[in-house]
Design a protein that fits this description.
CATH topology: Rossmann fold
Strand order of the largest sheet: 1-5-2-4-3
CATH superfamily: P-loop containing nucleotide triphosphate hydrolases
Helix content: 40-55%
CATH class: Alpha Beta
Number of strands: 7
Shape: globular
Largest sheet: 5 strands, mixed
Low-confidence stretches: none
Distance between the termini: 16 Å
Number of domains: 1
CATH architecture: 3-Layer(aba) Sandwich
Order of helices and strands: EHEHHEEHEHEHEHHHH
Bound molecules: adenosine-5'-triphosphate, magnesium ion
Mean pLDDT: 93
Strand content: 5-15%
Length: 244
């Protein structure tokens, strides 16, 4: 079972959209996928329709009230299960940052992939997710401030590595909302590839207005409109990711 958080402390870079669509592509390839909403904004839980009456969420698990299995909800996509988030995550006090990792060990034979949607901050939910990870994906837009933010994120990862005594496996940076006609974006992508000591995926997810619609409808764009450039991007990305 691979545990893959999508992290970036910068807001609005496409973390949630990427979790939804990567999960949908993996599910279409017959993999069993669990997605976890670690962001108290709860966007992931809105972005993919649930199909159960379970009231439990990830806060109940991390605060020791229930097991992780009890917080799993079915979605309308048979191969995708979800653990929703809660506003209470803001009050979460964590003593042991391997808590999520320990909980996930109980479902290791039920899923091929666990994708974790992280909030745009360097707090406890992100650190729990990093410690639980087997691979990390960093969605990022090709903008000047995004590149600066990535340097801070890589420093945080190094600090967590020192604290837990384990090297993190960063699969790479996934460029999102990319416009190939923009010279600035092309330049920044080049800088990302050359300037940081980190893998950058070849596939970029193109910007496309249909993505915003799909999130409002609670459906992955890859299922709503296969021909949309962003859908093609996510299909190609998963192919590239599975080959790395
Ligand atoms: P946050 O940090 O607030 O959780 P996020 O990193 O999860 O944000 P998303 O919510 O996935 O980012 O995306 C931010 C906005 O950009 C949303 O309105 C989403 O619909 C839009 N968006 C995401 N990907 C694309 C794309 N490829 N093309 C156009 N719009 C996109
Ligand atoms: Mg989000």
């Amino acid at each position: 079972m691979e545990v893959i958080p999508l992290i970036n402390q910068k807001g609005g870079v496409g973390k949630t959209t990427s979790v939804i669509n990567i999960a949908a592509v993996l599910a279409a390839l017959s993999y069993r996928v669990l997605i976890i909403d670690m962001d108290m904004q709860g966007n992931l839980s809105h972005g993919i329709k649930e199909k159960s009456n379970n009231a439990h969420n990830i806060f109940d698990v991390l605060s020791g009230q229930i097991s992780l299995e009890q917080a799993i909800h079915r979605t309308y996509l048979p191969n995708i299960h979800i653990i929703p988030s809660s506003f209470n995550l803001a009050t979460l006090e964590i003593k042991d940052f391997s808590l999520l990792k320990q909980h996930l060990e109980n479902v290791h034979d039920r899923y091929h992939y666990v994708l974790i949607d992280c909030p745009p901050s360097l707090g406890a939910p992100m650190i729990l997710s990093i410690v639980a990870s087997t691979k990390i994906i960093i969605p990022s837009q090709c903008e000047y401030f995004a590149v600066k933010g990535l340097v801070n994120l890589l420093n945080l990862l190094k600090r967590v590595e020192r604290q837990v005594g384990k090297q993190m496996n960063i699969a790479g940076v996934l460029p999102t909302m990319f416009d190939p006609r923009s010279r600035i974006m092309r330049d920044i992508l080049q800088k990302l590839k050359q300037g940081l000591d980190i893998h950058v995926f070849e596939t970029c997810i193109p910007r496309s207005t249909r993505v915003v619609d799909s999130n409002s409808y609670g459906q992955p764009i890859v299922l709503m409109d296969t021909n949309c450039p962003a859908s093609q991007g996510y299909l190609l990305f998963v192919k590239e990711f599975l080959n790395t």
